[in-house]
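Task card 7
Instruction: Convert sequence to structure tokens.
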Amino acid sequence: MKPGDVLEELVIRVLGAFDVMAARDVAKQVERAPAGAGVCIDLALARTIDDRGVVALSEAVRGRAVSAPVRLLGLRQHHVRVLRYHGADVAQLGLGPAVL
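Output:
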């Protein structure tokens, strides 16, 4: 195992509405992820994505992306801008399909 190798990846799939409460639940799961494990947050099947939920998500991934890879799937370009406005380094995040 070389430095920087990802041991595993936690995949968090969000269904239904992604709002502040859902973002807090995701943040708790991100915090519990093993050190060094990558995290993939899949919002592709979310019915709605609330901007306030995205702001809460930015706080959860901001520190995590420094120590291990974080991928976000299913965000629209608007949500990527919201992440950027609230301090997330979007260049460091792995943005997956459905980013429009």
